[in-house]
C-alpha cells in the first residue's frame, strides 16, 4: 500500500474527545479508566489523507480566518465525487453546505414536519435519529429491521402500513446502515422510496458512510435511482467518516427540487446553522479529488482486512459471540447474547473492566439488546489489544 494505515498517532496530545477519559466519562455519565481503548465514537484512528493535510497547511499560511463561503471549487468537487464514486450527475445548485449530517436531519425535521408528527426510523439505528426526533417534539415511529438467517432486512410490509398513516410524515433512512453494516440493494431502496412517495412521506437519506463499502457490494445514492426521488427527497452526505475530518464540520445536502431546497435553507438560517467552516471547505475540495479517491480506496481495503480479522478472532477465541459481517461502514455489530450475561453485566465487563469503550446495543433502540457496536477503523494493533481485553474479561470466572 502507498499509505500506512498501521501508523499510530497519539491523539491524547490533541483535544479529540474520543481519547480523553473525562470527556468519555461525561458522555457515559460515569468514571472511565485512563487506560481505556476507545472503540465507540465513529471516527477513525488513521492519519488524515496527505492531500487534505497539505491543503490545510496551505490555507493556514494565508493567515486570515474570517467568515467564509464555498466558492465554485467546492461545488465542483462535490459534483466530481458523486460522479466518480456513484456515477451520479449532480448539479452545483442542488448543493447546500451544512455543518453536519445530524444537523441536516434536524433541519429537515423542522422544515418538513410539525410537532406531534411521526417520524419513521429503522431501529436498531444510529441513536441520534431517535433523540433528534424527540427533542424536536415529534414522535419516533419504529419500522424495526428484521434479522433473518444472519441478514438484516427492511420490514417493507410494516413500512407500508406505517407510511399510510397520515400522522407519519417523514422517514429517516440510514444508508449504509449504522450499526448493522447493511448496504441496501437497489431493489430495497426503491421499494422503500416508492412507499414514501405513494403516501407523501418526506424521505431523508443519511448517506455519510456511502464511500465505505466492501467488495461485492455497491452503494446507490437514493436520489440517483429515480427522477421522482430527486424531485421529492433529500440526500445528506459528508467526507467526515471517509477521511476522518468530522471535526472540520463540513457536510452537504443535495436537494434537486428548488422549492424543497429553499424551504430547507430557510429553516437552516432560522436555526443559525448556516455559518461555514474555513477549513471544512478546504477539506472537501482536497478530499474529493483523484488523490483523495486513491487514499480512500486503500483505507477501505485495510478496513476490510480488519473485518476479516475480527471475524476470525471471534470464531477462534470468543465462543458465543457472533458478528453479522458488515457490507459497509467501519462498524461491527457484535451479538453477545450467546454468553447469557445480560446487558448490565456485558457493560460492566467490556466498558468498565476491560476498558474497551464500545457503544451498548440498547442505545440503538429495540433489537440492540445484548449487542455492542465495535469501531474497527483503526490500526490492527489497537484492534488486537481491544479484542484481547474483551476476551479476557468476558470469559473470566465469576466469584
TrEMBL record:
Keywords for this protein: Aminotransferase, Transferase
Name by which UniProt lists this protein: Pyridoxal phosphate-dependent aminotransferase
Taxonomy of the source species: Bacteria, Bacillati, Bacillota, Clostridia, Lachnospirales
Amino acid at each position: 500500500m502507498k499509505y500506512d494505515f498501521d501508523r499510530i498517532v497519539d491523539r491524547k496530545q490533541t483535544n479529540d474527545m474520543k481519547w480523553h477519559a473525562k470527556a468519555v466519562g461525561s458522555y457515559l455519565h460515569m468514571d472511565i479508566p485512563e487506560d481505556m481503548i476507545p472503540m465507540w465514537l465513529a471516527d477513525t484512528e488513521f492519519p488524515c489523507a496527505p492531500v487534505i493535510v497539505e491543503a490545510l497547511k496551505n490555507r493556514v499560511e494565508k493567515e486570515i480566518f474570517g467568515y467564509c463561503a464555498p466558492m465554485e471549487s467546492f461545488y465542483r468537487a462535490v459534483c466530481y465525487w458523486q460522479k466518480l464514486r456513484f456515477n451520479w450527475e449532480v448539479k452545483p445548485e442542488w448543493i447546500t453546505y451544512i455543518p453536519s449530517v445530524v444537523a441536516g436531519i434536524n433541519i429537515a425535521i423542522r422544515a418538513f414536519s410539525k410537532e406531534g408528527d411521526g417520524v419513521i426510523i429503522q431501529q436498531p439505528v444510529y441513536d441520534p435519529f431517535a433523540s433528534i426526533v424527540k427533542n424536536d417534539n415529534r414522535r419516533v415511529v419504529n419500522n424495526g429491521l428484521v434479522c433473518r438467517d444472519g441478514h438484516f432486512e427492511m420490514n417493507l410490509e410494516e413500512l407500508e402500513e406505517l407510511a399510510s398513516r397520515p400522522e407519519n410524515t417523514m422517514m429517516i433512512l440510514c444508508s449504509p446502515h449504522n450499526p448493522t453494516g447493511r448496504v441496501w440493494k437497489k431493489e430495497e431502496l426503491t421499494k422503500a422510496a416508492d412507499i414514501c412517495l405513494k403516501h407523501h412521506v418526506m424521505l431523508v437519506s443519511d448517506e455519510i458512510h456511502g464511500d465505505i463499502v466492501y467488495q461485492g457490494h455497491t452503494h446507490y445514492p437514493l436520489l440517483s435511482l429515480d427522477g421522482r426521488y430527486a424531485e421529492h427527497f433529500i440526500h445528506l452526505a459528508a467526507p467526515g467518516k471517509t477521511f476522518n475530518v468530522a471535526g472540520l464540520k463540513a457536510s452537504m445536502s443535495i436537494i434537486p427540487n428548488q422549492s424543497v431546497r429553499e424551504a430547507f435553507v430557510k429553516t437552516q438560517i432560522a436555526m443559525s446553522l448556516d455559518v461555514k467552516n474555513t477549513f471544512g471547505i478546504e477539506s472537501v475540495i482536497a478530499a474529493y479529488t483523484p488523490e483523495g479517491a486513491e487514499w480512500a480506496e486503500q483505507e477501505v481495503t485495510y478496513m476490510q482486512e480488519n473485518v476479516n480479522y475480527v471475524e476470525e478472532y471471534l470464531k477462534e477465541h470468543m465462543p458465543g459471540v457472533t458478528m453479522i459481517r458488515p457490507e459497509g461502514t467501519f462498524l461491527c455489530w457484535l451479538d453477545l447474547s450467546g454468553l447469557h450475561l445480560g446487558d448490565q453485566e456485558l457493560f460492566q465487563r467490556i466498558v468498565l473492566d476491560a476498558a474497551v469503550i464500545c457503544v451498548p446495543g440498547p442505545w440503538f433502540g429495540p433489537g440492540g439488546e445484548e449487542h455492542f457496536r465495535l469501531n474497527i477503523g483503526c490500526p490492527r494493533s489497537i484492534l488486537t489489544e481491544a479484542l484481547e481485553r474483551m476476551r479476557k474479561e468476558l470469559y473470566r470466572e465469576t466469584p
